[in-house]
Amino acid sequence: MRITIIGCGYVGLVTGGCLAAVGHHVTCVDNDAERIRALVAGQIPIYEPHLDELIARARSEGRIEFTGNLSGAIEAAEAIFICVGTPPLDNGEADLSAIDAVARVIATESRGSKLVIEKSTVPVRTGEQLRRALEVYGRAGKAKFEVVSNPEFLREGSSVLDFLHPDRIVVGVEEPAAADKMREIYRPILERKFACPVHSGGCPQGAPPQFFVTTINSSELIKHACNSFLALKISYANQLADLCERLGADVEEVTRAMGMDPRIGPQFLNAGIGFGGFCFPKDIQAFYRLAERAGMDFMLLQEAERINKDRIDHFVEKVKRSLWVLKGKQVGVLGLAFKPNTDDIRFAPALEILRRLLAEGASVRAYDPQGMKKTQAQFPTVTYCRDPYEVAAGADAVLLLTEWPEFRELDWQRVHNQMVRPLVLDGRNLLNPRRMRDLGFEYHSIGRPD
Ligand SMILES: NC(=O)c1ccc[n+]([C@@H]2O[C@H](COP(=O)([O-])OP(=O)(O)OC[C@H]3O[C@@H](n4cnc5c(N)ncnc54)[C@H](O)[C@@H]3O)[C@@H](O)[C@H]2O)c1
């Protein structure tokens, strides 16, 4: 099928790259001319494991192209995936202006019938508005539109795998015919009939993905409900961690045992400095604002968000308790991205901590395997280092803020030798407390006995 992807960010590039990899012909379009120039030149503007190989191969086989020509890309497409950003407005609601702008162009530039698929995360009833916008803006033409909601559940850092091997594909439609077309688009993935670019034939044999058809409203709500629930789980683990600190228990032991219960599950129970990224913080806000508009006070979500914001205060307090005065101290930061295996720093807790350290007069040296270039633009006064050992050199404290697995494997003895004061504050509970203390560190983590 000829597919157009509008928005070449994390979701757009993964969606486009994967749909091309399973055999579709994909045109990716964006209104950021610089981004398109880079993509046309073969550069992938984000870091995401496997994405560059995937796109390079699809491009060499003539199945993916990049353009800034939105009208042309719309004209040629049978199905259009809208993958533009839906950032938060000041009041927490989702900013849908990019969706509206795109709807206007789709409506005016389309000739035949088009399947218009919302892949961006949007509040319930956006599909209704989108259909109305397409009708209103396109009233002079003869194009016919079928609107579909198809929320994306990929996780940055493993998004190519998540897209090609999903647990479920949720499709919200008005008419069964639209669901059939979506099934056709996803058929290779549903039937696992594609040459997997990641596993080269040796894909894990789990249960096949569920193709779950709902109304558009339900489908839109499913995405917000999932992200908010996962955010709740993290905030729950974080409150438990605080309680463990007060009562002398170990949150890692508590959550590990909790996770053994299949009704609870082990994921998203990690205590730390809280969640960030382009999804959870904005989606939880958008969800309770949506509830508010519907006349409901979804306090549970507001509380989860408050707990998450407090994580930063809690951690910075710990740093201050250990260092006494921050002004004039040299603090090393390991990890900037909001999670490992991505260069995404949007709403990353590490950045808020960086901001506080600088505001208190500390000098900061930082390292992240992928997130430094993007951070540098926002924090030019930080010293960016080539490796963690450079971060540690002369440091009064090292803060571990993103759980990149390679930080676990560091030569911590070498880190110890480089530091002025061997103090480590582990905001992700990545390291083993006993081992760190045996090496002579003063080591503090989250919800584990000091
Ligand atoms: N990042 C994730 O992990 C993730 C996961 C699931 C869902 N989502 C949702 O998917 C959507 C996109 O997220 P993202 O992380 O890819 O965002 P992003 O900011 O990385 O990408 C959005 C892209 O859309 C482009 N764009 C904006 N307005 C445009 C317009 N009018 N015409 C053409 N292009 C336009 C931007 O230039 C940018 O390249 C959001 O709604 C997000 O909530 C994100």
Overall description:
The protein has 450 residues and is α/β, with parallel strands linked by helices. 45% of the residues lie in helices and 14% in strands. The chain contains 18 helices and 14 strands. The chain has a six-stranded parallel beta sheet with strand order 3-2-1-4-5-6, sandwiched between helices. The longest helix has 32 residues, at 216-247. The protein is globular and about 70 Å long. 48% of the residues are buried. The model has no long low-confidence stretch (mean pLDDT 96). The chain binds nicotinamide-adenine-dinucleotide. Nicotinamide-adenine-dinucleotide binds at residues 6-12, 30-32, 35, 83-86, 98, 101-102, 120-121, 152, 154, 156, 278-279.
Low-confidence stretches: none
What is the gyration radius calculated from CA atoms? 23 Å
**Based on DSSP secondary structure assignment, what is the total number of beta strands?**
14
Number of distinct helices: 18
Q: What is the overall pLDDT average?
A: 96
Strand content: 5-15%
Taking the sheet with the most strands, its summary is:
6 strands, parallel
Distance between the termini: 58 Å
| Gross morphology | globular
With strands numbered from the N-terminus, the spatial order across the biggest sheet is: 3-2-1-4-5-6
Structural class: alpha/beta
Instruction: List the ions, cofactors and other small molecules found in this model.
Output: nicotinamide-adenine-dinucleotide
Regarding quaternary structure, what we see is single chain
Give helix % range.
Answer: 40-55%
